Known about the structure:
Distance between the termini: 68 Å
Amino acid sequence: MKRFLKIPLLSLLTLLLLAAGGFVMWAETPAPPGPAALTALQSDEFVYVFQREDHIVFYPAICDAKIAEENATGQQHTITGLIFYPGGRVDYRAYAPALRKIAEQGVIVFLMRVRLNLAFFDIEAGAPLLEKTEGVDVWAAGGHSLGGVAASIFAQNHPEVRGLVFWASYPADDSLKTAALPVVSIFGTLDGLAAPERINESRSLLPLDARFIPIQGGNHAQFGDYGPQPGDLPAALSPEEQWAQIARATADFLKALTP
């Protein structure tokens, strides 16, 4: 009897291994970054880009001037850092265009490379940055789509996070509803995945003072630069204009945060 049981057990184990292998192969083939994203990864006189093993830093040159002035005159400057989680199965580098524009406005941005290209498997990816990064006075977390969900959990796990940014995203439950945490939700009016109706419904999951900022004519995929996404709607504005509006709304929110 034991001999005959070995056959179905071995078959089940084989099926499980094949399924796991198929999932890993699926997860490890993300939407690749477009040309604009790759160009945005180059340093210039305004933003220094540092590519680490598990994240990319967009460091504003103006921060060096602020630190120098603070050391010379004692005048205090608040430096904000944003830990950003990418959307599911999207190469994290695809978010470089909008995030670089945020850095141009004086915010240090840390773009996380997450396990299996799925932020849910690496929610605590940003924790070492909170512990080891010097010079950041105010921390915020944010993300696009699935990355926004992960960022919301990360923010709840770390009280030192003072702000939360959703790009075409919303939390998984209402645990943020009573949180004393500034929140901004930025969404496209032509998003076919995180539809405006769903974003509006998420108001009941967030603090009463959460801000909702629509990008008129924006869609889901143009929060990054990774090409069209199945189920999305065509945008009514250029990627460059959408990135500019996203960056402006995000930076304005972040620069208003206090330690």
